[in-house]
Amino acid sequence: MSKCMQMPLEARHWRLSRLRIARLCFLSATLFVVSCNSKPPQAAYVPISELEQTFGRLITVANIPTPDQHGTGDRLGLFSDDAGTVWGIPLMVADNGDLLGCAPPKLREFSITDTLPDDVEIVGATNEPNGWREGTGKLELLLRNKKGELNRRPIKAGEVKDGLVCWSQSPPAQPLPYYRLSSGNSN
Predict the structure, then answer these.
(1) Interatomic CA distance for residues 166 and 125, integer angstroms
(2) Residue 137 φ then ψ, to 5°
(3) Where are the alpha helices (DSSP H) in the chain?
(4) Which residues pair with 165 in a beta bridge?
(5) Distance (Å, rounded) from C-alpha 131 to C-alpha 179?
(6) Residue 93 and residue 66 in contact, taking contact as beta carbons nearer than 8 Å
(7) Cα 58 from Cα 155, distance rounded (Å)
């Protein structure tokens, strides 16, 4: 007779329960690891001319801020539409030299990430210096007001939470943020 059969009934149930719990924990951990490692589907990079038809003219370019020094970040194009909304869209240079951009199909439905002051013109964009080499700081716009005065302003990004995502072209591969800036005088 096997050792297991010689055990009292309660001990056999406890041993089977522990085995079931161990299997359940292993299965749960496996599912967790698989779900954490699954990448959201990637949105396509398309010619700038296509993006300008939907999001307005490309007005300036910068690098997407990075949380650490794995590079300077991917390129970011700022597009301005007729309604005064400014769209921050990831850019890349294709193998043939063409400039392409990536806009998730639902970008127009995403929340506004920041608001620009009234009556300003964006004259440039850069990464805000943060004083140390652990990242590049927030995206910062250089703005000119009606009086001709220049001001700089860091702006907030948004995270794509569902649907197609724009992925970085520079390592490490990661989902890229979006920018949707509302004009202070567009309501």
Answers:
(1) 20
(2) 80, 175
(3) 3-6, 9-37, 48-55
(4) 42
(5) 24
(6) no
(7) 18
Q: What is the DSSP letter of 108?
A: G
Q: Would you list the domain boundaries of the chain?
A: 3-37, 45-183
Beta strand 57-63 with 75-80: parallel, antiparallel or unpaired?
Answer: antiparallel
3-state secondary structure of 18: helix
**Token couple for 71:** 């590079």
Q: Which amino acid would we find at residue 58?
A: L
Q: Are 127 and 139 in contact (CB under 8 A)?
A: yes
b vs e for 79-109, b when ≥16 Cβ sit within 10 Å of the residue's Cβ? Answer: bbbeebbbbbbbbbeeeeeebbbbbbeebee
Name the maximum alpha-carbon separation found in the chain.
Answer: 96
Please list the pLDDT of the chain residue by residue as tens digits (187 residues).
555 556 565 655 556 566 566 555 454 554 444 445 567 788 999 999 999 999 999 999 998 887 665 556 789 999 999 999 999 999 999 999 999 999 999 999 999 999 999 889 999 998 877 666 555 668 999 999 999 999 999 999 999 988 899 998 877 788 899 999 998 765 4
